[in-house]
Each structure stands twice: as structure tokens, then as C-alpha cells.
């Protein structure tokens, strides 16, 4: 399987199964239309293209294509054995720890019921948090690197417990030969100097929520009293990044109200933030701000605008990091990672303040997806087979999709919320993901072609 | 080759038969929380590097 497209006037061909990426000329780009798998319909091709390109060019193009095929870099076969899924053991290595089911903000699009997740507003106790870390370490098999994201609600509302849990994790990880990486996702309201100093010391990554321009942010991200949060959080975030010596992302959500979200990215860059992630809102279609099918074209064009901006900044010597444009084409994740997906419900779980265990944060509060409780005598993941089986080879739309090794089948929660099943991906999400992958690959190709640096390896 | 510039060589076949080491970051923990992408995750397999 191949995928070909044009990125800023440069024809690009992705060999899906090998991961090879080629920048080609227009002759090859057009000749490839006459290949069905590895077989070329030469007669039709000559009839259609000889006048335009001439016999010599067509012969050269075919020689190059055949050379790539012989090197297994074009139309290569899929070599993944589906048996890998059957042999996968239930190992938990990452946890979203809901230390606070309460929030000091009232965001219009919150998927967490303004922090309560369809339950009672409450904070996680230290005891429950410790049990959760024990659970993670005891159920992680031979995995050495473990992850714990402090999440909510707003996790800084339970900051003392966060600190105690980090200390506990550090004490206990050695006993199990583990390395826990702590991260935190915050809305920024309570991010004062003391918390900044602590977070900088212990957190591997920090996610700072903000949507971009003042009017865009304040329309959706409000205090409980209905006031905008932009002024407070930008002040706190600027203070934070001045002191930060480590990874962070400012992360926004775009909705139907700001389909021109590239301007929000630009605004965040102008504020001095270097690492940016902006994501499509996930919500029920009944809301005005929900993305609609009819918005697709506009959103895709906006990713093109964002790509242009990305390259413009790079050319000016001011490169930035946009989360979804990051792709390592030569030494990225192995193919097993790429077909296994996000790990929700298998190696990734979320734990509520009550100690209930769910496949991920987006399923918290849904009783159909409750996997158990930390207080149970033993944990048996009753949905392991369901989630383990929800991989790209079991989903027809994914199996036939060129982007499957970049996206790995998409978000189970999005699929469930859109279609009532985790086996059918969220259509609009797929279109956006494919576009982002095209942009990410295109940017790498463009930079390599333009500047000859980075990923190009001489053949 | 005259008409092709290879930007990335095949990278998906090496580990196709093994079960992966599983040490890499869980994608949704990094900076998204709402839209899964795996190809931007870093490989943490020391042997592979």
C-alpha cells in the first residue's frame, strides 16, 4: 500500500508498510497512478503520459520505481503478525491519577462534568493514592519505565497529596526496580511560585491548559464565577516557563468557535511558549461549539496554514514544537507500538478518587467501563480482550487506511462516544488525524529537501 | 535514482516479529489527552538505538 499527496507543491509518496518516505518528481507521481500493487499497466500509462513527458522520462521513472520496489521501499508487504496481540499479557504501565474530582474552573466543553465526572465532587485521599501507585508497580510486570499523570478536575487543588504521592513513589519504586515518571496537567489558576518550584523539581512533563487568544480562551475557559481566565493563567504560565528547565506543553482545545486556530497557536508563540499542542474538541454534536462534518474542509485548510507557519518560523530561526507535527521518520516507535495504539484498557488505566479503575480518563464515571476498584482482593481486567482486540487489524476502516501506523487506530473513547463502539473509529477524527500526519511528514520532507538537514540519509 | 529523493528509509520492518519492549511513553499521557497519535512518540529501546 502506498499513499501519495502533494505538500507545498512537492509530491510525496509514503510506503505504508515499510515506513519509507520519498519525495518524487511529477513524472513518477503520475506514473504511480498506473500501478496496482507492484504491477504496472504500462500500455495505459504510455497512452496517457507519453505526450506530456516523453518516452525517456517515463522509462527513467519506471526504472526508479522498480528499484524502490526491489529494495522493499515501495509497495512493500505488511509483515506484522497478528499473533502478537494474542500473546500480549495484561501489564499496566501508565496511570492517569484523578487526584481531584473537583475544579476551580467551569469550562464550557469539559468532558469531566466540570470536574465531578458524573460522581461526587471529592479529592483523592493519600491512602487511595498510595494504593494506586502500589497497584501500578505490582501490575507492571517487567516494565521498568512507568508513568503517572496527576489529573483531575484540577490536580493542584489536592497539591499536598500530589507531593506526598511523589515522595511515596520515589521511596517505593526502587523496591520494585521501577522508574516512575510523574507528569501533571493543570489549568494554571493555582500555579504559584511554591508549586512551580516543586513541579520543576519532580515532574517530567507539565501540561498547561490554555486555548490561545484572550477572547477564544475566555469564551470557553471561565472561573466558577463566569469570568475569563486568560489574564490569570498567562501570568502564571509565563512565570512558570521562565523557571522551567524541562519539558512542558501549553495545550489548547479548538472548537467550532475558532476554526482559525492557527492564529491561537501564533498567539501562544507570541506569548513566548515554545511547545504547543492544540486539539479538536470532543463533545456531543448537540452543542453549538461541537465540530461538524461540514467544518472538515476548513479545518484541513487550517492545518495547511499551520504548516506554513511552522516552516515560516523555522526559516526565521524561531522553530517551535507543535505536538502533532512531531514525527521521527527514521527512529520512531517500533511497529508493535504503532499497531497497539494508546494502550487504554490494556497497559493504561485511570483511577478515580474513589479508587475505581477505568480504561482511561475519558471513560471515568461510565459504569459500563469500570474495571474494578483498588480495594478489590485481586484485579482482573474484564475488558482486556475487548481493548486488546480493538487494534487496526480488527477494524476494517483502519486496516485499509494509509495512516494506520502513525495513528494506530485512534482514540477508543472518541470512537465509543461517536459510534457507541470502540471498534468503529470517529470519522471526523480520522480525517483530521490523516491531515496532521500528512503535514508532519510533509514538513520533514520539505525541510530535508530545502535545507538538506535532519532526516535525509544518503542512499 | 534521478527522480526520487528518499526522505526516510524503511523503519517499520526491524521489529515486526518481536513483541516490542514496551518501555516507551503512553501516547495519551504526553500532550494530547483527546486525540491519539503514536508516531510522535520516542523509542526507548536502548538496544534498538
Describe this structure in words.
The complex is a heterodimer of chains A (459) and B (49). The longest helix of chain A has 25 residues, at 427-451. In chain A, the strands form four sheets. A ten-stranded mixed beta sheet of chain A has the order 14-13-12-11-10-9-6-15-16-17, with helices on one face. In chain A, strands 1-2-3 form a three-stranded antiparallel beta sheet. Chain A has a two-stranded antiparallel sheet with strand order 4-5. Chain A has helices at residues 26-31, 42-53, 55-70, 83-86, 126-138, 159-173, 193-202, 214-220, 230-243, 262-270, 296-315, 335-340, 384-388, 396-399, 404-407, 412-419, 427-451; strands at 2-7, 10-15, 21-24, 35-36, 39-40, 94-98, 100-101, 122-123, 145-151, 179-186, 205-209, 247-254, 275-280, 321-322, 348-351, 356-358, 372-373. Chain A has 17 helices and 17 strands. Chain A is globular, with a radius of gyration of 24 Å. Helices cover 39% and strands 16% of the residues of chain A. Chain A is α/β, with parallel strands linked by helices and 459 residues long. In chain A, strand 9, helix 6 and strand 10 form a beta-alpha-beta unit. With 49 residues, chain B is largely without helices or strands. Chain B has one strand at residues 4-8. The radius of gyration of chain B is 15 Å and the shape is flat. Chain B starts with a strand and ends in a 41-residue tail after the last strand. At the A-B interface, strand 3, helix 3, strand 9, strand 10 and strand 12 of A face strand 1 of B. Strand 3 of chain A pairs antiparallel with strand 1 (4-8) of chain B, so a sheet runs across the interface.
Amino acid at each position: 500500500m502506498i499513499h501519495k499527496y502533494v505538500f507545498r507543491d512537492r509530491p510525496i509518496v509514503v510506503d505504508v508498510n515499510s515506513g519509507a518516505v520519498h519525495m518524487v518528481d511529477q513524472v513518477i507521481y503520475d506514473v504511480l497512478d498506473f500501478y496496482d500493487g507492484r504491477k504496472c499497466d504500462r500500455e495505459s500509462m504510455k497512452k496517457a503520459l507519453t505526450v506530456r513527458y516523453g518516452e525517456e522520462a517515463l522509462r527513467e521513472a519506471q526504472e526508479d520505481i522498480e528499484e524502490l520496489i526491489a529494495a522493499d521501499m515501495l509497495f512493500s508487504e505488511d509483515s506484522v503478525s497478528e499473533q502478537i496481540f494474542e500473546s500480549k499479557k495484561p501489564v499496566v504501565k501508565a496511570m492517569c491519577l484523578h487526584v481531584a474530582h473537583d475544579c476551580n474552573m467551569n469550562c464550557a466543553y469539559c468532558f469531566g462534568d466540570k470536574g465531578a465526572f458524573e460522581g461526587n465532587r471529592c479529592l483523592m485521599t493519600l491512602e487511595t493514592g498510595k494504593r494506586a501507585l502500589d497497584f501500578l508497580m505490582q501490575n507492571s510486570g517487567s516494565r521498568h519505565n512507568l508513568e503517572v499523570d496527576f489529573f483531575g478536575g484540577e490536580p493542584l487543588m489536592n497539591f499536598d497529596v500530589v507531593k506526598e504521592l511523589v515522595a511515596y513513589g520515589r521511596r517505593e519504586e526502587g523496591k520494585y526496580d521501577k522508574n516512575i515518571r510523574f507528569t501533571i496537567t493543570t489549568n494554571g489558576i493555582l500555579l504559584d511560585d511554591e508549586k512551580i518550584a516543586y513541579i520543576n523539581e519532580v515532574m517530567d512533563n507539565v501540561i498547561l491548559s490554555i486555548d490561545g487568544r484572550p477572547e477564544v480562551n475566555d469564551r470557553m475557559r471561565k472561573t466558577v464565577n463566569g469570568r475569563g481566565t486568560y489574564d490569570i493563567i498567562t501570568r502564571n504560565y509565563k512565570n512558570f516557563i521562565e523557571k522551567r528547565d524541562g519539558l512542558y506543553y501549553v495545550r489548547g482545545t479548538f472548537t467550532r468557535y475558532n476554526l482559525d486556530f492557527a492564529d491561537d497557536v501564533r498567539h501562544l508563540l507570541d506569548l513566548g511558549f515554545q511547545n504547543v499542542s492544540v486539539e479538536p474538541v470532543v463533545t456531543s454534536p448537540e452543542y453549538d461549539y461541537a465540530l461538524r462534518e461540514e467544518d472538515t474542509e476548513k479545518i484541513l485548510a487550517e492545518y495547511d496554514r499551520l504548516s506554513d507557519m511552522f516552516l515560516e518560523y523555522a526559516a526565521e530561526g524561531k522553530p517551535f514544537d507543535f505536538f502533532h507535527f512531531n514525527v521521527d521518520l527514521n527512529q520512531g516507535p517500533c511497529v508493535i507500538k504503532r499497531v497497539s495504539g494508546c494502550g487504554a484498557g490494556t497497559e493504561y488505566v485511570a483511577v478515580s478518587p474513589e479508587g475505581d479503575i477505568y480504561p482511561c480518563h475519558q471513560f471515568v464515571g461510565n459504569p459500563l467501563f469500570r474495571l474494578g476498584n483498588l480495594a478489590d482482593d485481586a484485579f482482573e481486567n474484564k475488558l482486556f480482550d475487548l481493548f486488546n482486540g480493538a487494534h487496526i487489524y480488527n477494524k476494517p476502516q483502519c486496516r485499509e487506511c494509509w495512516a494506520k501506523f502513525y495513528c494506530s487506530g485512534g482514540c477508543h473513547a472518541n470512537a465509543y462516544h461517536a459510534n457507541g463502539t470502540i471498534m468503529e473509529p470517529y470519522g471526523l477524527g480520522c480525517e483530521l488525524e490523516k491531515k496532521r500526519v500528512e503535514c508532519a511528514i510533509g514538513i520533514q520532507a520539505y525541510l530535508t529537501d530545502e535545507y538538506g538537514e535532519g532526516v535525509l540519509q544518503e542512499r | 535514482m534521478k527522480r526520487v529523493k528518499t526522505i526516510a528509509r524503511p523503519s517499520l520492518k526491524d521489529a515486526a516479529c518481536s513483541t516490542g519492549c514496551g518501555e516507551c511513553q503512553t501516547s495519551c499521557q504526553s500532550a494530547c489527552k483527546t486525540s491519539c497519535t503514536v508516531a510522535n512518540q520516542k523509542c526507548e529501546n536502548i538496544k534498538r538505538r
